[in-house]
Structures are given as C-alpha cells and as structure tokens.
Amino acid sequence: MVDMNDERINKEILRLKEKGIGLNCVDNLYQVARLTLSINELKKKRNAVIAAHVYQRSEIILGVSDFVGDSYKLAKECSKINADIMIFAGVKFMAETAKILNYDKKVFIPSMEAGCSLSDSITQKDVLELKKKYPDAPVVTYINTTAAVKAVCDVVVTSSNAEKILKKLFEKYQKIIFIPDKFMGRNLAKKLKKEVGKDIILWNGSCVVHENFDSEIIKEYRKKHPDMMVLAHSECPSKIIENSDFMGSTSDMIEQIRNTNASYYMLVTECGLGELAVSMFPDKKFIAMCRLCPYMKMITLENILYTLENLPKEREVLIEKDIAIRAKKAIDKMFEFS
User: Fold this and answer.
1) So where are the chain's domains?
2) What is the value of pTM for the model shown?
3) In sequence order, what are the residues at sequence separation of 6 or more whose Cβ sits closer than 8 angstroms to the Cβ of residue 105?
4) Per residue in 225-283, pLDDT tens?
5) Domain formed by 6-116+296-315, architecture
6) Class of domain 117-206
7) Quick one: 242 exposed, middle or buried, by C-beta within 10 A (0-12, 13-18, 19+)?
8) Angle of the 301-310 helix axis to the 26-46 helix axis, nearest 10
C-alpha cells in the first residue's frame, strides 16, 4: 500500500461519499479510502484498468473501476481497452471473455475461486454430445460458460440480446439448442412462442442466486405497495417472471428505472444491483428482494490491490490459443447479430 497522509485520505473519503459510498463505520471508510487511493495510483503506474460487474460491491464499482456493466456491456468495453493489464472484478468466465477479446493483454482475476454455477453446470464434452444428438441445430450459449464451451458453440448471447438473437436464428432454423440456463431458456421460449423440447433444446443449468427467489414474497409486497414496479432478471424461474412487470438484463433494469416513475421498485436479482441503483437514483424508493452471489463477493479491494501489486501468475487468466480463437468467433457472431 502506498504511503499517504491524513489530508489525502480525508480527500479520498470525501470523494467516496460524493460517489454515494455510504459506510456507517468511520474506521471502515478510512480503510476503504486507503485501499482505493493505493489501487488508483498503482493502476496508473501499471497502465492497468479495472472492469467491474454491476454485482460487485459499491466501493469497487464507484471507488476503483474504469468501466462497469452487465456481461454484454463489459464484453463490448473489453474489446477496445487501451492498457497493458486488465484486472477483472467479476467471475472467472467474464475474465476469460476479456482475455479472449484481448489475447495480447495480461488479464488477472483477484480470486480464482470466483466461479459460477451456470458455468460449472456444463462442459465442452456435454456440448459435443448435444451436437451429435441434434446435428442440424445451432448451439447458442449464454455468456455464463467457460471459454472451452464457447469454443464449440455457434453464437454467444447475453441477457441483453438473447431474445433478439434467438428470433433471428429461428428465421433460419427450426430447432435451436440453448445452454446452460434452463430458466432463461424457458422464459425466452415463452416470449418467442416456441416449445421447449421441440423448438428449443435446453440444458439443466441454473444460477444459485436467481433460482431461489420466491414469487409469494412479491405478492405480499404488492398488497402493501400495489403501485410498485417489479423488475426481474431473465435468469429467474418463470413463476417470478409471471409475477413481475419487467424482465431483462441488469442494464435493461437500470434503464427501466431511469425512464419510469413508480412509487417503489423491487429488483429481483443479485444485491449488488440494488446498491448501485440506490446510489444512481437517490430520489427513488427501492424494496429489497435480493440474494448475494457468493462468487462475486469473493472479489475485494484487498485482493484487487494484492493482484495489482504482485501480478501473481496463479491469478492470471490463461487460455489455449486455439480455444480462444474459436470462442472469439462465437462472441464476434453475437456482436454481428446485435
């Protein structure tokens, strides 16, 4: 950690407060300021950038990140970075995507344990078996998969563009394989008026955050706040979507909040989005219905700083060249369709 005096730390505390980081404990905020100062100074020396997913802690998003977004926005931003090093404050499949799109750059993830239940649910071998079973069906993978899985798929999608891309593919194909999220697949099938098992083949994967939301809680809150707007992520089970007013990606949800004036907003997704929304829209009211992603929360200011200081080999994201080239084709196809 760089040397700094109290005056510099106090200025940093003011900057963080102005950004909306409202930590109740002064000692904690003092420590946060020491970390953010050190990280931001070291970024300049290393010619590094920090990408942060919207599910990250507010002190990471508002304190040290260079760009923030959902999977689609981060994929776009990662494709045009001008830095030698990228620190990815997200989960491993996202850091892999950043490496695929910047193969000549060094990409690090502060915790190699930051995985994803969707990504863990399917392997490259599983996809190859699906392709044998349905040889005429293109394989569409949600971005929450490993580089090795993407390498044997036809196109990558995110929650922001999946409906649009599937709609285009159904103009050409009668059957599509969609992996790995069964809930998102069912939600998309319903929107596109397609039959699961006939028109769209699904995999049995799900997100540990979104699969456990209870629609009965939404109903109870509607009794108290009949004018509230419920916004749910498309990874949620269909019962949640049926009881919501809006389904989309995290960026879609933010735009919906920006462009509407509901009495209350309920965001059915990971808690990080709620924290971000509160800081972005201080005049709007939010009802908490969220779950923490244990993987996203493995990223901290402390391990970001350690990674920047040491650039440890064990935290560098490495992908075989052949896999990266094939996976990039599927990602490029997404950009083409979008």
Assistant:
1) 6-116+296-315, 117-206, 210-291
2) 0.91
3) 81, 83, 84, 85, 86, 99
4) 999 999 999 999 999 999 999 999 999 999 999 999 999 999 999 999 998 898 889 99
5) 3-Layer(aba) Sandwich (3.40)
6) alpha beta
7) middle
8) 30
